[in-house]
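Incident log, structure service

09:12 report received: a user says their structure output differs between two submissions of the same chain.
09:20 pulled the input from the user's history:
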Amino acid sequence: MFPFILRRLAQAVLVMICVALLAFMLFQHVGDPVVFLLGQDATPDQIRALRADLGLDQPFVVQFWHFLVNAAQGEFGISLRQGAKVSRLIAERLPATLELAFVAAALALALGIPMGVYAALRRGSVMSQMLMMLSLLGVSLPTFLIGILLILVFSVNLGWFPSFGRGDVVQVGWWSTSLLSAQGWHHIVLPAATLAIFQLTLIMRLVRAEMLEVLRTDYIKFARARGLSNRAVHFGHALKNTLVPVMTITGLQLGGLIAFAIITETVFQWPGMGLLFIQAVTFADIPVMAAYLCLIALIFVVINLVVDLLYFVVDPRLRIDKTGAHV
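09:34 re-ran on a clean worker, output below:
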């Protein structure tokens, strides 16, 4: 297992270097930060002095090395739009995005897995057919439309939930959370549901398809022949082997929830990284864009590494190498 972890870490480092290079290229080809900082009326002497202070007059390789060192320390410079350190802006917005993503993921898993198992075990029933029909609807509708419909029904017409904002926020050290207040939970319901619907339907359909495939395998038939109960066969054998591909998709989707919560945060004016990124794109705030790109890549890399390690827990076949010895 240790060599496996080393290989994955080496791949992760390589991926992060490639992403850092792409992020650094933003500074080279998406406008001149000196012009953004000084304005159009700056004199040539002012421009040369600031370029020297920022290290922009040095060779490309030297600039990229400094960028890597600073990025490894979580430093991406000053926001061109807000005039504050990018690391501070990210630290302020990151808790809101992570909370939204994890609540949406928990909701999708808590509902998607049982619904997928039910649809597989009762695939001929009316309820199963209704679940599959609703899953097609959930997969097909775009996220922004789901959010608007939820706001129309539950905020405008029924008045049950607020349509924007994060609610009361509680500071726990440097971390800010809205999950420790009733108003915070009240505000997160609609955006979390909007973000979770696509993931829920995807997980449900995947669990159903994998469950049906596993139930047709020989070892399930052998388990039935041994006289095991349906409960033991379905949940002790079939479901456990169904979870391996589900973990892969869930891990990638969790990264996707964090990375692509932009639309949901924009619709509900949720003060997270997605909204910050949209504002950065609008004003060509390159340091914020580069930091967001590197952070999202790091999240994907970490999640994929965790999912790979979880394979060893769920599937015992992966703990045995080709010679039959345990890894």
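09:41 both user submissions now match this output. Likely a transient worker issue. Closing.
09:42 reviewer note: The chain is about 75% helix and 0% strand. The CA atoms of residues 111 and 200 lie 7 Å apart.
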